[in-house]
């Protein structure tokens, strides 16, 4: 889709970063909206706040970690992570495991039930996305997915403090 040029008296097309920010904001609002959260809970049978799903997704991708390391990685306060972990532990979606390098410490790891819950929620989310994008041609949807993966790579590299680490081919 080619952006059109502004005609006489019309505002110019916003710059790419403004458009990217607007698109990402819309995506986050959609994903965290009450309607979508309710629909995901109904379809998946799991109802957690978005922040707890994000934390569970972190544990799905990462090796078991100390709570303080999780907080550092996510750039949030330890108390925030501890609060979010209470519900995940209560539901047995994560568990404390001994740290093999320091028996006095514990690590937090996702459980099989946590992985299963994530798989169910991701499947429900894909169902919703399929409904939303039903009229979008597959090649256009593929191109959008490719762009989002580039955005993800750059944002993750930026979180690690290496903004130039990602290159595009």
From TrEMBL:
It comes from the Bacteria. Pfam families: MarR_2 (PF12802). Signal peptide: none annotated. InterPro entries: HTH_MarR-typ, MarR/SlyA-like, WH-like_DNA-bd_sf, WH_DNA-bd_sf. PROSITE patterns: HTH_MARR_2. Residues 14-153 form the HTH marR-type domain. PANTHER family: MARR-FAMILY TRANSCRIPTIONAL REGULATOR, TRANSCRIPTIONAL REGULATOR, MARR FAMILY. This is HTH marR-type domain-containing protein. The lineage of its organism: Bacteria, Bacillati, Actinomycetota, Actinomycetes, Micromonosporales.
């Amino acid at each position: 889709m080619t952006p059109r040029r502004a005609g006489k008296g019309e505002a110019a097309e916003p710059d790419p970063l403004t458009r990217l920010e607007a698109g990402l904001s819309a995506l986050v609002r959609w994903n965290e909206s009450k309607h979508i959260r309710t629909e995901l809970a109904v379809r998946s049978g799991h109802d957690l706040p978005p922040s707890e799903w994000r934390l569970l997704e972190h544990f799905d991708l990462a090796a078991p970690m100390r709570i303080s390391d999780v907080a550092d990685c996510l750039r949030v306060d330890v108390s925030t992570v501890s609060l979010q972990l209470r519900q995940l532990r209560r539901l047995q979606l994560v568990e404390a495991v001994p740290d093999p390098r320091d028996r006095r410490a514990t690590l937090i790891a996702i459980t099989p039930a946590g992985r299963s819950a994530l798989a169910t929620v991701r499947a429900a989310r894909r169902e919703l996305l399929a409904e939303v994008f039903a009229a979008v041609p597959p090649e256009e949807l593929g191109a959008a997915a490719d762009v989002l993966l580039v955005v993800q790579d750059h944002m993750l590299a930026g979180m690690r403090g290496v903004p130039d680490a990602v290159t595009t081919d």
